[in-house]
Amino acid sequence: MTDASTPVLLTIAPMTVAVLRETVPVAALTEFFDRAFTMVPSVLAQQGIVAAGPPMAVYSGVPSGVATVAAGVPTATPVSPVHGVSSLTLPAGRVARVIHRGAYDALGESYQALTDWLHEQGLEPGPMMWESYLTEPTPGGDPADLLTEITWPLAR
């Protein structure tokens, strides 16, 4: 079972994120995340840059059969591009945010609830959204305990 918190509207500052970007089949996202969340910290360590927040994934458009995704971590300073890792600046502005509690494979339910809520408010989601993984999955851990923060900038 999954659970989502009540959505909130916020105004956020821009955020720099060190990421690995690819377009991958949705079925291959786990493999991509495994590579990205290994490669990005390695590049940061080589450049003496410290993560400034939890791991995250940034989606360009709503994934269907394939996803254009960038996965990595926020940083205080941009990373020098190497091994496919580069910096991405997430824009400042108004966003809708909700916390999803539960397994990753049920995130779609929280996205749908957030989309419905936005439309009820007369607001339109923009073309980009991101997930911040507030808890790390552990072997033998209960997926119901996972917390994922979904942030969706509003269309201008």
TrEMBL record:
AraC effector-binding domain ranges (all copies): 5-155
InterPro entries in the cross-refs: AraC_E-bd (IPR010499), GyrI-like (IPR029442), Reg_factor_effector_dom_sf (IPR011256)
Pfam families: GyrI-like (PF06445)
Protein name: GyrI-like domain-containing protein
